[in-house]
């Protein structure tokens, strides 16, 4: 009690400056103690955080929510684009088979013209809306691209008529011949040699195609002729496109030609060819007189096939951008499996055990070919 009275008296006798100095000293002491406590809390928090991070890295593979999110985005890109490519490719072949066979539509050139017209209109709308960019065309570019387009039109027409007469499974197996013709063309045109695994896979494709044709219960000589022409034209298209590509880019003002511009150029230039062929072959009379053109569901199927044709172009470019040529070729070979099986189921194709074995062997040969190209 006496000590507190002395302290009060001493504080009373002090000057204002001395009292202010004591208050400042006390505030500094309090600040120091607060900083010390905060430092201790921060050290404890840092220690617990480091332990938690070590535990999370050990037991959670992606190391947290943010990294997990980025990983899922990187993983979902190729998966979504690959799935879109497979679905559009399968749907396009099956839809063409429905239009030509199920509706018994005997005007393949007219169907091609309608599909190409839809593709041009959709690309034009996308360009006007600013979704895609298209190179400005000129007569020099058109002259350079004309041989490619002639082969492109022949490839589409032959593919249409082969689907009309042959079942979907055999069409996909016979398409393996395109790889053989392309490899031979690369050897003579570009001096590109293939390894022994590739040639072995192509030999397997030849065996599967021959055995498939012999055991095909729905064999049609006209359809096989069209499919042979389609294989030659498809291989010629890829080889000619590779040779013309650089020259076509030099014919543009910007010095480049993106994939969307190629799609539009091909479909746009095919329109006058289609009109000329329809007049020469007399398809316009058939289209006017046939009853199937009065069926609304026929036009729904034909329009959908046009959208699917354009979807293949865009999804293939998207998938190729997300992955790479090797993965793209491998998925393209694997894609033949669901196409073949779905074609057998949907159209009730008469099938024998040897023919089924030939189809499965051809699908296996296509996968082996893609794997060999990757090595």
UniProtKB/TrEMBL annotation:
Limits of the Sugar phosphate transporter domain: 88-360
Location within or outside the cell: Membrane
Membrane topology listed for this record: Multi-pass membrane protein
Origin organism lineage: Eukaryota, Viridiplantae, Streptophyta, Embryophyta, Tracheophyta
Transmembrane stretches, start-end: 112-132, 144-163, 197-215, 262-284, 296-320, 353-372
Chief place where the protein resides: membrane
Protein name per UniProt: Sugar phosphate transporter domain-containing protein
Record keywords: Membrane, Transmembrane, Transmembrane helix, Transport
InterPro entries: Sugar_P_trans_dom, TPT_transporter
Pfam families: TPT (PF03151)
């Amino acid at each position: 009690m006496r000590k507190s009275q002395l302290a009060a008296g001493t504080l009373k006798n002090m000057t204002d400056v001395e009292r202010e100095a004591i208050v400042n000293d006390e505030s500094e002491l309090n600040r120091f103690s607060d900083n010390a406590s905060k430092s201790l809390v921060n050290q404890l928090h840092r220690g617990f955080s480091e332990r938690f991070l070590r535990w999370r890295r050990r037991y959670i593979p992606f190391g947290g929510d943010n990294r997990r999110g980025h990983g899922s985005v990187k993983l979902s890109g190729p998966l979504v684009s690959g799935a879109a490519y497979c679905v559009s490719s399968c749907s396009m072949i099956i839809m063409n088979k429905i239009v030509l066979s199920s509706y018994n539509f005997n005007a393949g050139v007219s169907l091609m013209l309608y599909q190409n017209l839809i593709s041009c209109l959709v690309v034009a709308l996308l360009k006007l809306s600013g979704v895609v960019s298209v190179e400005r065309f000129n007569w020099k570019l058109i002259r350079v691209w004309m041989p490619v387009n002639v082969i492109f039109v022949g490839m589409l027409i032959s593919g249409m008529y082969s689907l009309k007469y042959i079942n979907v499974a055999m069409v996909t197996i016979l398409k393996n011949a395109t790889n053989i013709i392309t490899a031979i063309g690369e050897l003579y045109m570009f001096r590109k040699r293939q390894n022994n695994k590739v040639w072995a896979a192509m030999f397997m494709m030849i065996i599967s195609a021959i055995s498939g044709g012999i055991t095909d219960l729905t064999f049609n000589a006209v359809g096989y002729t069209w499919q042979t022409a389609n294989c030659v034209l498809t291989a010629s298209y890829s080889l000619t496109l590779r040779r013309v590509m650089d020259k076509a880019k030099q014919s543009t003002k910007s010095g480049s030609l993106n994939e969307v511009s190629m799609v539009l150029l091909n479909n746009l230039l095919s329109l006058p060819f289609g009109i000329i062929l329809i007049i020469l072959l007399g398809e316009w009379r058939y289209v006017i007189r046939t009853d199937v053109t009065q069926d609304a569901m026929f036009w729904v199927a034909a329009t959908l096939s046009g959208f699917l044709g354009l979807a293949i172009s865009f999804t293939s470019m998207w998938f190729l951008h997300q992955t790479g040529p090797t993965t793209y070729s491998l998925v393209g070979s694997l894609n033949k499996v669901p196409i073949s099986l779905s074609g057998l189921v949907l159209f009730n194709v008469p099938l024998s055990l040897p023919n089924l074995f030939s189809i499965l062997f051809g699908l296996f040969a296509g996968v082996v070919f893609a794997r060999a190209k990757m090595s």
